[in-house]
Design goal:
alpha/beta, 7 helices, 15 strands
């Protein structure tokens, strides 16, 4: 049995987001991880170019989509999971910690006390150590909180899809100042990822490359352990926490956090149409 899934990565330039398709080369059963819904904040227009490119690749490779997976409820882009699920007939999964994230944001967006913060908007909630067959391969779930409560890593053979836990080595690690974030938990989650072994491929959810470098979709545990500017070997937990908390205090609010989170905790479903046939997002004022 091959331990090596094939992976194709797609970069969304506007949000710096990597989406990935991983599949078993023998059976062509695969998954989509962290798809993007195009959204223009100035006009309020949504588009499907990024998500459609994933669907087109799935069709071209004759991949049977077993799952559409979210590593967490993103604050920097809207997810294309719901749009893809309708077209591919695949279930949408996320970590069980989404319930905590939903509870934290339900009041901010005035969803009302009857809006269910129980994860039921998703087809499946993954627990730590859950396993699911993927053709001749296996999908394994690691709960890796710290950036958010619901952050998970999906491990398929020698590949791990790590969400925002780590960025490219020259950019460091995720912020921990969102509701439910915790720098100490993030450090411990990073060590759990490092324990996967030096050759493990780590597929990133974002990259914000400095001038002169192309966006990086994948690194390895060995590269991160030797070169990550925030979390390389030799940086202890207390030093990491002090650095992360100081750095987070100076970071700006993500540009799309308000539209993104209210859509993403609904598994990518847009708000219902109002009586005039239009959809509306809620932007709370003076709240963040």
């Amino acid at each position: 049995m091959s331990r090596h899934p094939q992976v194709e990565s797609f970069f969304h330039q506007a949000t710096g987001t990597w989406s990935h398709i991983a599949w078993d080369p023998q059976t062509h059963v695969g998954v989509i991880i962290d798809p993007v819904l195009d959204y223009d904040a100035a006009s309020g227009r949504c588009g499907h170019e990024a998500a459609a490119s994933l669907a087109e690749f799935i069709a071209s490779q004759r991949i049977q989509t077993a799952w559409i997976l979210e590593t967490h409820a993103h604050a920097d882009h809207l997810t294309g999971a719901s749009w893809l699920a309708e077209r591919l007939g695949a279930p949408v999964g996320i970590g069980r910690g989404i319930r905590s994230v939903q509870a934290q944001f339900r009041d901010l967006f005035d969803f009302g006390p009857d809006w269910p913060a129980d994860g039921s908007q998703f087809d499946h909630l993954f627990d730590d150590a859950d396993r699911s067959p993927l053709g001749d391969l296996e999908l394994r779930v690691l709960h890796t909180p710290g950036h958010t409560d619901d952050s998970v890593t999906y491990v398929i053979g020698d590949a791990a899809f790590i969400g925002d836990t780590l960025f490219a080595p020259d950019f460091g690690t995720a912020r921990c100042d969102f509701p439910g974030g915790n720098a100490r938990k993030l450090y411990q989650s990073i060590q759990r990822i490092f324990a996967l072994g030096g050759a493990t491929r780590l597929y990133l959810c974002h990259d914000y490359p400095p001038d002169g470098r192309e966006p990086t979709a994948v690194t390895t545990v060995a590269e991160q352990r030797s070169g990550n500017i925030h979390a390389r070997d030799g940086i202890g937990e207390d030093a990491f926490v002090a650095m992360r908390e100081a750095r987070d205090g100076d970071l700006p609010v993500p540009a799309l956090i308000l539209p993104a989170v209210q859509v993403n905790i609904r598994a990518g479903r847009l708000p219902e149409m109002a009586g005039n046939g239009r959809r509306y997002l809620k932007i709370p004022l003076d709240a963040l």
